Automatic annotation (TrEMBL):
Pfam families: BPD_transp_1. It is a multi-pass membrane protein. Keywords: Cell membrane, Membrane, Transmembrane, Transmembrane helix, Transport. Its main location: membrane. It comes from the Bacteria. The chain crosses the membrane at residues 6-27, 61-82, 94-120, 132-155, 175-197, 236-257. Residues 57-255 form the ABC transmembrane type-1 domain. This is ABC transporter permease subunit. PROSITE patterns: ABC_TM1. Belongs to the binding-protein-dependent transport system permease family. CysTW subfamily.
């Protein structure tokens, strides 16, 4: 076995062995999280009966979906402007502001957003306190930066002659955008949505700054519980998340395979 293959196997084992162990111990009947006590589904039943975890998970999914959608709208427009508007006054500043969340520590971003929300509440009365809405806006701010980068990179390598041909054939700029540019952007918008959704679902730092009692997300609940020690319900929750992610990846692979098959057949 070559050194490269050995290093690859060790690296993959280091990445995926903890996930395999977590899923395996989720089916253990023992109350100690990392001790095998026979096969059992008791912790999955306990997870389903844990109202706080279930409510936090549903809230996180709603916040992540809303934040990803808003991030695609804002970041998609920003990426389009940077890729298609050419040099314009303030372009460097605009690009720096869009990309700032990528390089700033999340602690700085979270503190600045908290101060912004407090100032807005004092000035215009909105938002009324911190909760799910402020978490959504904070996550959308972070996700928009990633979406803008992905969309800009996609359009930078796209052939502009297709858009120019549509305009030369009499299409209005809006029709050219809808029929030519938007389909070219679609893969990057979808990828950006998934990236923003994952970032929101996984975030603890930003949510800790801008959330309130009504905006406690799943990562915040898990982090607070882990301070007191790991419980078997957390293993069960991790197994459920892995299963959902695997199903989503399998579905995406199936859809892409069918699309490729249709293109090959066409």
């Amino acid at each position: 076995m070559s050194v490269a293959r050995l290093g690859l196997r060790l690296g993959l084992g280091f990445l995926y062995l903890p996930i395999v162990l977590l899923v395996a111990y989720a089916f253990s009947a023992d109350r100690i999280p990392f001790q095998w006590g026979g096969f059992s589904l008791r912790w999955f039943r306990a997870l389903a009966e844990d109202e706080r975890l279930v409510e936090a998970a549903l809230l996180s999914l709603r916040v992540a979906a809303g934040a990803a959608t808003l991030a695609v709208l804002v970041g998609g427009l920003a990426g389009f402007a940077l890729a298609r508007f050419g040099p314009f006054r303030g372009r460097a500043l605009f690009g720096a502001l869009i990309g700032a969340p990528l390089v700033l520590p999340e602690v700085v971003t979270g503190l600045s957003l908290l101060l912004l929300f407090v100032a807005l509440e004092g000035a215009i009365g909105w938002p009324a306190g911190r909760g799910a809405l402020t978490v959504l806006l904070a996550h959308a701010t972070l996700g928009a930066a990633y979406v803008a980068v992905v969309v800009q990179a996609r359009l930078a390598e796209a052939d502009r002659s297709l858009e120019e041909a549509a305009l030369n054939l009499g299409a209005t700029p809006f029709v050219a955008f809808r029929t030519v540019t938007l389909p070219l952007m679609a893969p990057s918008l979808f990828a950006g949505w998934l990236l923003a959704f994952t970032l929101s679902l996984d975030d603890v730092v930003l949510a800790s700054f801008v959330s309130g009692p009504a905006g406690t997300t799943l990562p915040m609940v898990l982090f607070s519980r882990l301070k007191l020690g790991l419980t078997p319900e957390v293993n069960a929750l991790g197994a459920v998340i892995v299963a959902v992610a695997a199903a989503a990846l399998g579905l995406a692979a199936l859809v892409l395979a069918r699309v490729d098959a249709r293109r090959g057949g066409g």
